[in-house]
Amino acid sequence: MNQGLVLRLEGLVQLRGAWQQLRALSCRRACGAQWKPVQAPAHPVCPVLLHPQPWQRHTMGSRALAQSRHLATKEDTKKKKKKKVVLRGEVEIRQRMTIEELARAMGKDIEHIYEALLYTDVDLDSLEPDSILYGDHIKMIVQKSGMKYKSAKLKEEKERKNTDAVKPPADPAVLTPRPPVVTILGHVDHGKTTLLDSLRKTQVASMEAGGITQHIGAFLVHMPSGEKITFLDTPGHAAFSAMRARGTNVTDIVILVVAAEDGVMQQTIESIQHAKNAGVPLILAINKCDKPEADPEKVKKELLAHDVVCEEFGGDVQAVNISALKGENLMVLAEATVALAEMLELKADATGLVEGTVIEARKDRGKGPLTTAIIQRGTLRKGCVLVAGKTWAKVRLMFDENGKAVDAASPGIPVEIMGWKDVPSAGDEILEVESEQRAHEVVDWRTYAEQQEKLKKDVEVIEARQKEHRVEYEQKQQQLAHLTWRQRKAVLYKANKHQMFQRPTERREIDENTLSIIVKGDVDGSVEAILNILDSYDCEDECKLDIVHFGMGDISENDISLAESFNGVIYGFSVNANASVKKLADKKGIKIKLHNIIYKLVEDLKEELTSRLPPALVETTVGEASVLDTFSVTVGKNKIPVAGCRVQKGLLDRRMKFKLIRSGDVIWKGSLSSLKHHKNDVQVIKTGMDCGLSLDKNLEFSIGDEIVCYEEKEVQQTTSWDPGF
């Protein structure tokens, strides 16, 4: 009994000692003073009953002690504020997080996140590390991982102030007359460029690839009477519809060129529609009237069906018969244009901030980004700071249509501008701003606004897709409703576990039947036209078309590397590839296809698509026979159905394939097990001969069945894509 009491007392002593050490440590942290233990006298009866205050403090002045305690407490408080307390197993989450961000916050790898998503309605095939997850799924993943979550405190983003450039209203008192901007529209090869060539006495048509205008040309023409007219020559080819629309939107008058021998064509109708949409008046120029087969009256009557009524039929459209090649009646056409411009009373403010429109944009190796623009307000000079789209420029040099440097450009004058930081898009509005700092503000705002708009659209697409997958998920759950929850989890796990061990890039199917292309063009409008053609591609079931990159400028080594990554083909339009780039492409086996005429590029693309298609099996009939009688023969213990046939056409060759047709339906395909003429085995039965045959399958014949002998040949398929020209 006494021994048990002693053991209990010893245990209490050890516990008391541990408690005293803990209390001493706590006191040190709280006060910051120096402490040391002092041995207290033992109790005379029981050594366990120690002195209740075994610690004594070194002697310190009360003032010094208070100061020491105060400083220590303040310093310790700062440390506590700086240190972020993170509880074990607690994850800080936001309403929207990418898979990569969530994995990092949880301290897990990405595969862990995919595994947790196996049992949800999320489509794993569409997920990438940068895919966005939303609140419900994020919380579920954290909980399934045995962790707790807490919401991160979000700073409320203040509504950003709109710092975009604005157009001040024009003062009517300072408006002065300006040259008219005239766009020449019409069908391809109806003589638009030849007409403009005759007006400005230069050889543009001979310089065009294939005699076809490939992008917009803007020219200022000085008339003998002293008048100035700015002409825009737009492409008539079907591929350049967007260019024609852009040219029409900045113009005052449209000259519609129609060939007298061809009449109204597809792009003629489209040009009329562009002019109507823009609300621009028309002048009809009936070209090639010097040809014997020319019929101007027929052209005028055909145009009546499209609401283009000439003056002689009671309408308001002037019609001029011309020959652009011989220069006949060109001054009559110019006078009609000047007369119409006077009626329109075209005026502009030449004193305010510059406004204009980008007609065409390109990147020059020596000059950098260049734009062809029409000035619509103000006077453009060197040093002006301009903004267009999401880029800006400090004007370094300006050139006219002949490449000569000019010092100023007033309203209605076309000019090429040098000094852009990046290539703007054709059709962008040009606005002058006060300084480079202001230009940065405008570009930053436009970039921000575009990002917000894109984010809004992305969220709508994601929500629609999530809704679609949720419906599919609920349907699957209903199909598994009769199972217990353990059985359901097991079924879902077995169905999706193979995706756990694949990386996102591996989960995406790499279809061999895919053509990846890179498109490079000389100017923005050319690239735009090519992309518009590619948008019409509708044969994804035959071969997928993937545009991995597009841009302006010559073919570069970066394009080669990108094409190698995607096993793609590079298409260049009016651009070049230097010797080192071609050598690198040959080394890596990359195709570079350069063209100067757009329809040849499209034909080349169609051939490349065709080459990616698998060969098709085509059946060629060799012979046909009809079943006249049926019977069976015994071979061992089996009865084999036999058909008595007569060859009606061609021949039956036992080495080829056969099919059995009954009432127009094919009910069997395969090979013959035997072919006999009388009682002899034969290889071939010709027209008019009788035979007996049996199939490699135990199938009953009927009188009147047809036996067709055929051979299969592989034939190269051709893409069914029709780009429209």
TrEMBL record:
Record PANTHER family: TRANSLATION INITIATION FACTOR IF-2, MITOCHONDRIAL, TRANSLATION INITIATION FACTOR IF-2-RELATED
One Gene Ontology cellular component: mitochondrion
Family: Belongs to the TRAFAC class translation factor GTPase superfamily. Classic translation factor GTPase family. IF-2 subfamily.
Organism, scientific name: Pitta sordida (Hooded pitta)
Record's keyword annotation contains Ribosomal protein: no
Name of a matching Pfam family: GTP_EFTU
Protein's name in the database: Translation initiation factor IF-2, mitochondrial
Alphabetically ordered keywords of this record: GTP-binding, Initiation factor, Mitochondrion, Nucleotide-binding, Protein biosynthesis, Transit peptide
Predominant location: mitochondrion
SUPFAM superfamilies, sorted: Initiation factor IF2/eIF5b, domain 3 (SSF52156), P-loop containing nucleoside triphosphate hydrolases (SSF52540), Translation proteins (SSF50447)
